[in-house]
Structure formats: C-alpha cells, structure tokens
Fold this protein.
Amino acid sequence: MSFRVSSRFLVLTLALATVVSGCAPTVAVNEGGTPESDNTVILYSGREEALVQPLIDIFTEQTGITVEVRYNGTPELAAQLLEEGEKTRAGVFLSQDAGALGALSDAGLFEPLPAEISDRVRPKFSSLDASWVGITGRARVIVYDSQSVSPEDLPQSADDLLDPKWSGKIAVAPGNASFQSFVTAYRVLKGESAGDEWVAGLVANSPHIFEKNSAILEAVNDGTHPLGLINHYYWFQLANERGKENMRAQLHFTEAGDPASIVNVTGAGILRPQRLDQDAYDLVAFLVSDQAQQYFVENTFEYSLVPGLGTPEGLPALEDLAVATFDLSDLRSIAKTQSLLQKYGLIP
Amino acid sequence: MRTSATSVKPARALPGQVYVVDKNPRAPWWLVVASVLVIVVVSVPLFYLVVRVLDVSPSGILDILARPRVLSLVFNTVGLAVAVTVTGVLGGTVIAAVLTRIRFRARGTWLLVSALPLAVPSYLASYGWLVLIPGLNGFVPSYALLTAVTVPYVILPVAAALRGTSADGEAVARTLGLGPIQAFWKVTWPQVRPAAIAGGLLVFLYTLSDFGLVAMLRYQTLTWGVHQAYAASFDRAHAAVLAMLLVVIAIAVVVAERSARGNVHRTTATHLPLEEVRWSFRWLALIAVATPPVVGVVIPLLGLGMRLAQAETLRAIDYSRLATATASTIGVALAAALLAVLVALPLAALAARYSRRWVGALESLGYVSNALPGIVVGLSLVFLSLALLPGLYQTVALLVFAYVVLFMPKALGTARSSIESVSPELISVARTLGASPFTAWRRVTLPLALPGLGIGALLVAITTMKELPATLLLRPIGFDTLATELWSKTVAAEFGAAAPYAAVLVLIAAIPAMILSGVRSVAKEEM
C-alpha cells in the first residue's frame, strides 16, 4: 500500500532533517524571513468543493502553483488549525465566516497581509489589523414559505420577528456564526439591554432550532416552517438543484439599515507554516482579484467586496444593505453574544 | 511469575503427567503489558480531553456545567440512550427468538434482512425520512430511527446465541406447565442475556456518540452540544467539558453492564425444534421482524430516491472518482477491521481468562472511546500525532489508527466472549499432550475463537465505512472515501450528484452486514 511507503519516506525525511538541522546553524523561521515559493500551497477550505475547486483550477492553470485543498466545515477546520498551531502545514485558510477568522486571529495564527491585498476590499468588510481579508459578502435574509405567507405580511425589521403572530413559526440556527453576527449587530446598534430583550423575545416566540442554514432553507421550502433566518446565497444553491421555478421558499430583505439584513463575509488569512510561502500570498491575492471576484458574483451569487464589480443578479446593492454604523470590528464582541444566547439556552 | 514456591509447574507437561488448569491463575506479564498498552492507545482521546479541560479553571468548569442548556442536554442524552437501548434489547431479543425458533418461510432471508439497517449511515436514514416527512423532529423520531438502525447489534448476537442453545430446557419447562413465553423467559433468557446486554451496550454507546441523526432531527444531545461548542464559539475547552460528561455517562453504563452481564451456564445444543404457531401469531412475528428494516432501510432509501427524482442537476457520474472512493473506503475499512481485532485481542484474552477486579476496570476503559463523537477523537489525534509523531499526521496510517481507537470496542466484546467460550479443559488437554502455552493458544483457542473475532472485524468494517467527522479531519489531502464524497456533495445541495455515492456506500456496507447475519457462531454469547 502506498501509504506505508510515503509515511516511511516522511519519517526518513524527518530523521534526515533532524540530522541536518543539528549540524547546520539554525535557520530563522518565519519572523522577518522573505517568503519563498515552491509552487505548492496547502489550502484549508471551509467552503464547498463544488464552489471553490473550479476557481482553484483556474489559479493553477494561470500560475503553475499546485494547490492542495483540504475540505471540511469551517468550525471543524478552525478547531483543527487551533490544534495544529504553529505546526500547521497549511498556507491559507478560507473561511465561511468572520467568526472563525477572528478566533484564529486572536490565537495569533495569521501572518499580517500586505497592503496590496488588504486594500483591495472595502474596509468595512475586512479585519482592522490586516490579519485576514474579506473575500465575499452574503446578506442575512428572511426566507419565507411563499405558499403560506403573503409578502405584505412579512416582517420589515428584526423587531417585527417578535410579533406573536410568528410564534412557533421561525426557524433559526443560533450556533451558526452568521446568526451570531446578526445578533451582535443588533446589540451594537441598539444597545445591550435592547439586545437582551430581543433574544428574550425571540425565545418567547418559541423558535425552532436548527443546526445549519441549509437545513432551515429546506424546511421552509418543504413548507414545514413559514419563516427562517439564513444567508441569501443558500437559496441559489438549492434553486440550482431544484430549478428556480420550483422554489417554494423565497427571500425577503428587511428595511435598509436593519440588523436582520446585515452583510456577513467569507474571508481568508495566511497561516504561518514552518516557512513563509509566497504561493500563499499569490493565492489570496488571486481570491481578491477581479477575475475571482467576478466568479463569485456570477456563480455563487455572492457580493464582491472589491468596489465596482457589480451586484449579483436580482439582489439589492451592497450599499443598500450595509448598516452605516456597523463594521466588522464590532464583531469582536461576539463572545458577549454567545453568552447572551447561552443565557437564554439557545446554544449550550 | 508462575515459578513461585507454591505452584511449581513445568512449562511443558512431563510424559504421563496431566496438566491441571489453575482455577484462578495469575495473568502472564506480557499479556498484562500488552493490555495496558492497548488501553493507553484507545485512551488517547481521554488524555486529550483532560489536557483541554485543564485549560479551564475549576470555577470555569462549574460555570459551563451550570448553563441552562447543559442539564437538559444530559437529560436528553441519557433519556434517548436508555430508551433506544431498552427497546433495542427487548425488541432485538424478540426478533432473534422469532428468527430462530418459529417456523416460517424464508427464515434465512429474513435474518439477512434484519442485519441490513447496519449498512445505512444514520445521517442518511434521517435524511431519507425528512424528505418524506419534512419537519420531522424531536425525541420520538430520533428514538424510533436510532432504534431501527441499531437493533441489529442485539438481534445478531442473540440469534447466534439462541442457535447454540438447547431448547430441551424449555421443553421440560413446558411439560411442567409453563406457557411458551414463560418458558423462554425462565429457561432461555438467562442463557442469551449476556449476548443481549453486551449488544445493548454497543447500542447505548452508539446513541451517545451519534451526531448525524440527532442533528438532522434536531434533538439536542451532548454530542450535538459538543459540535455546537466548536461551531458556535470555537471553544475547545467548552467542547471538552461536554465530551467529559459523555465519558462519565459511558463509564457508568459500562460498569453497570459488567455487573448485569453475568455468567453463562452453557448447555450444548442438541437440536432445535422449530415451533409451529398459529398464522395470526406468525403474522405478528413477521411484522416485528420487518419493522426495523422498513424503518431503517426501505423508507429512507425511498426518500433518497424521491430527492433524486427532483434533482435538476443530475450530472453524469464520474465513474473513476466513484471507483477511487469505493476502493479507498474498502481499503481503510479492511485495514481498520484487522487492526482493531489485533488490538482487541490481548485485552480480550486477559478479560476472558483472568477474573480480577483490575482486569475488569481495564476492560471497561476499553469501551469508553466508542462513546465519543468522531470530531473529539479526530482532534485528539491531531493534537497527539503532531506532538509525538508529526511524520504520521494526515497519513492513511493515522486515519486507520483513528478508526481503531473509535471502533475497537465493537470488536472487544465478541473477542472476549469467544475466547471465554473456549473450554479451559481443551487447553489442559493440549498442554497434557505437550503443547506449550503459545502452541495451545495458537492451535486450540485461536481457531475456536475465530468466528467471534470475525464478527468483531465485520462490525468495525461496517462502521468504518460510514464514519465521517474523524475522516474529514485526518484523511490525507485528496483522499476521499464514499462518506466524504457524499458529504461534499450534500453540503453544496447537490443531491443528484450525491446519490451514486450513497447507493454504493449502502451496498458495500451491506456485504459485511449480510455475512454477519449468517455467522453460525462459536461465539454464542455476544458481539
């Protein structure tokens, strides 16, 4: 079996490396070192293979750099990277949400990004300290069952969701980072006590707890739940599978400036493996290039975070959704949101 | 050492001398060392959890435990596991009795069918149901579906035990005036009880560790909570505290199982007269036998088929990718099965032959890793391999090792009971004839215990094929199993593209399940 060979080879290489490093003067790792290229980079992708791989193939074709991609859920990869720490071999982490990026950034696992990468995207949608960069935006939306809810009855704000007429009818995924950033936005915009009251009000309205957004969308589309809180782009995935005209679930944006329609980001950061990898920088630079951003807008219906690249078909402009007084740095207080959700038993 | 002053025994019996088996011998040192090593290996996740829990201050731990959701998670978990296990043990025993004791057509086929729910991953079973009945959620569906997919863990060993049990005692009880059910209860149940209870233990541990099904059916258990702790707050310490609660529950149950297991007083099977029963009773019996396969296999596959029919994006199947994933799945499953049995062997031999309190404690520890969610075991091996053997990290070798840690307990019970069932007298005969202890083991114990070891290996193979969370964490980049391919298609809502992988996964997992149903085992008690 091939793995025997490769592991033996690895052990051998390691032994050799130990011997060599024992004789040679210690080489400075990371700090201050110039990145080198060996034409391969390892990417940990918390985004689906079906979306990411075509883009990676384009990158490889253009640059000759091989990208080895490990696909898994964003939380799982974040937990894995936290365990790996400085021993990681990954060069880049592509995350489904800002929460995971913040956690890795707090653990000091990211290498700061150069200005030519971090300045490409709108400042409100990236980390303040250039530890990671936003790649795409996805709006929080209300998904509703078009057969049981008429559009004029739909909630126009987060507060409308607390109306008793929605009691037992709302599906949420409170463990999901995007739900938490929405609650964080609510707290930051309206104050802590209002945030507490909102969560208490939601719980009083007996919401149905789901593990993830995609399951909420399916439930609403199957007609079992009238309303759900999700990210917009899941709808396009399911519509792609079932056919747009067959979609019972429809999207609804709350009024401009309301926290229920904030925009969340996916993003990427450069990790610190044993050796700074130029290929990692090239890959992240590619992800914020016009070409890649266009790919996201057209194929995954996400918002480009690079100004001037247009809006996905049939969606409101990013400017109309963005909450003027809220930016991603406010997400630093997401821990407070988590304690709030724990207090009301929405998450363990 | 055996050559102490009190019990001088030659290593080899002298001519004309009868080798007498010591009734309560001391375990040889090498067996003890090997068993302790095995425990160290499968306790890797426990060490990891301790390290992570120690990151939290004692008051921090109390804070986590005092959260409103935590207590309800414990209640939900224990309630679900107890309900599934009790139903599984009772239902599984009844089904096994029907399959071995009542005359009806195509009995062999029914036994085979009753093993099939093992082949359907629980996440697939629940998804299929959700297609048919959207919105299905909570305790009752989780309980019903988990029972259906785990009841073969009881049916198969109990059926095997019943086939090896004489019905003569029951016949005597019947002549003494007991009804058929009473006679079964008084005479036969004590003989199959260890098999039923050991199967029940596997059902219980399975329920504790299951994530896919409870996540789909939105029933919040501790394993769900562990996943939420990673997802909601990237809080490894918090996840570890919740996982520790699972460990505590598992230990309590393993200890309870040890005391409930009891000893088998074996009677040799002479012949098995099949009961002729009224047609109405026969129909009732058939319904009981058919329920788990219908609930756990037929209906879910129907649901998946319907979803497939709705798919607009039914792509051309990438056959080479499907073939590669199939080969990888079979490869790791076989490797894990063999290795798990090898690892289980010393501990099983120790537990089977030397009844000491500390041996019991050691054996109990061997089961705990089976109660843990795959993600915890996966992360513990990320942590440990990077600390000790970085060269092995993200190799197939480490992945197989993870499967062994996760699923060795499934082989442990069968291995122990099959070694136990080899009569010590046979060994003393072999020793009298001049065989060394090792030769006696190799030529007597091992061949007789082999079918039981095989059952364990098959169970490990089936569960390995279906495993997802640890596989995703530890596989080498680009190494895909059927389960990971299925996952990567469904997260992108590509159900059409996922279908071939689901079908092949169920098909190849059905093969060991079918073999299992046919094992006319020497290991009569347990699996």
User: Anything to note?
Assistant: Chain A touches chain B through 68 residues (CB under 8 Å). Residues 2-23 of chain A form the longest helix (22 residues). Chain A has 13 helices and eleven strands.
